[in-house]
Specification:
The radius of gyration is 26 Å and the shape is globular. Helices cover about 50% and strands about 5% of the residues. It has 19 helices and 5 strands. With about 425 residues, the chain is mainly alpha-helical. Helix 10 packs parallel to helix 12. Strands 1-2-3 form a 3-stranded parallel β-sheet, with helices on both faces. A two-stranded antiparallel ribbon has the order 4-5.
């Protein structure tokens, strides 16, 4: 998440055969690339040699620390895969089978429920290919001696072996062609249509705040849909209702801002502890699972030299505090909301009312010529990401962009594109 990790592992019959702590240039027999971005850097590629090195590479798009600073960062997976294949000579005769690319994260999530088990999956894959000169008993025993999520890690190792033997069969298990979901209430699985997407988000907002809050969301979305449907019927808008789609997504994003009450609600959801217990096992050596939280309560946290809040560590007792706080979500936005007095929370609530008034204004003037501009304005919350000072900076950028787009609301699409580029 914040930087790369590379391990140099050497295996020999006796210690006397090991002369160095690091693998020299071009002398890697196997590269187990659990992160393609790290595997594709100059240091890792320098260890590869055509005809000698074999590699199993996880192609999952795992963001780097740069994504925190630049939300528009693009994953360079395809380019890196090409560079790695070239370094291994994977397209040359005799070296075709020296490089296996696989999205191990996607498979482990589907098979195990969490990408946490990607590494043992990759280990099992490489072992099954015959690229690790150890017995499977030795590797399984090392998992047992490590003493963490033993059964799950063993299972991931075996799934990796199966994928190396018959990947197509494993993918059929992980991603069946037809998903049949049975529910206690007899309801059908959501298909992802606009109606169901709106309904799902409205249901979320009921849990987030209350039915009235969800009704506020649905009322504006329905209003946009009615206007856009009339425009579509007259031949002035596409049938996919792009403005309704944008408002349904981004109005929800603004309404469901993640404040202290919401963080507490998510942590106290039973699904959170179920996931933790599935990933980690309590044992005699380490004792029961203990959770620590790193938070920066705005009312009493210190600030650094730039005025940014500094996070503090809190112990497991915070779960009880979260339980109390989650039940107080009804105070959100009222005079009794102590958290709502910060500038960040005031700005978040102001964004909601500004969005509602802006959308209402655009609907009064909406026609075929202004539809693209309306969609661009309605999608501006996409630019508002992050928390604290990061979010504050993004809000300022979005506000400036909004002014440019609103000023060209009736302008041709070409001018609108110029305004966005500016």
């Amino acid at each position: 998440k914040g930087g790369e990790v590379a391990s140099h592992v050497q295996i020999a019959a006796t210690p006397e055969h090991l002369q160095a702590t690091r693998i020299a240039t071009g002398e890697a027999d196997l590269v187990l690339g659990c992160d393609i971005i790290v595997t594709g850097n100059t240091e890792a590629i320098s260890k590869m040699q055509i005809g000698r090195t074999r590699a199993v590479i996880n192609t999952a798009d795992i963001p780097t620390a740069e994504f925190v600073r630049n939300p528009d960062w693009k994953f360079p997976g395809a380019d890196l895969a090409g560079e790695i294949r070239a370094a291994l000579g994977a397209d040359r005769a005799g070296t075709e089978n020296h490089c296996d690319l696989i999205d191990a994260n996607q498979l482990t999530v589907a098979l195990m429920g969490d990408a946490l088990y990607t590494n043992p999956f990759m280990l099992g894959y490489a072992w099954q290919k015959g690229w690790i000169p150890l017995t499977d008993h030795a590797l399984i025993r090392s998992i047992e001696l490590n003493g963490v999520a033993i059964d799950a890690n063993k299972k991931a190792f075996v799934w990796g072996r199966r994928a190396a033997h018959d990947r197509a069969a494993v993918e059929r298990v992980a991603f069946p062609a037809e998903v049949v979901e049975l529910r206690r209430d007899g309801s059908k699985k959501l298909s992802g249509s606009l109606d169901e997407t709106i309904a799902r988000r409205a249901e979320f907002l009921v849990g987030y705040q209350n039915p009235a809050y969800a009704g506020r969301y649905k009322a504006l979305v329905d209003k946009v849909r009615d206007v856009e449907n009339r425009l579509t019927a007259s031949g002035g808008a596409p049938s996919k209702l792009p403005l309704t789609q944008a408002v349904a997504r981004y109005y929800f994003k603004l309404l469901a801002y993640k404040d202290e009450y919401e963080v507490a609600r998510l942590y106290t959801d039973p699904a959170f502890m179920e996931k933790i217990n599935a990933q980690f096992e309590a044992d005699e050596k380490n004792g029961p699972i203990s959770i620590k939280f790193h938070l920066a309560p705005p009312m009493f946290s210190k600030r650094d030299g730039q005025g940014h809040l500094i996070k503090q560590q809190f112990g497991p007792w915070m779960m009880k505090a979260f339980g109390l706080l989650a039940r107080m979500k009804g105070l959100r936005g009222t005079p009794f909301d102590v958290f709502g007095r910060t500038e960040e929370r005031k700005a978040e609530r102001a964004l909601i009312t500004e969005y509602e008034s802006t959308v209402t204004m655009m609907l009064a003037k909406l026609d075929a010529a202004s539809l693209d501009a309306a969609v661009a304005v309605a999608s501006l919350p996409e630019e508002i990401r992050g928390y604290g000072h990061v979010k504050e900076a993004n809000m300022a950028k979005a506000a400036a962009l909004r002014e440019r787009l609103i000023s060209t609301f009736k302008a041709p699409v070409k001018e609108i594109s110029r305004a966005r580029a500016a």
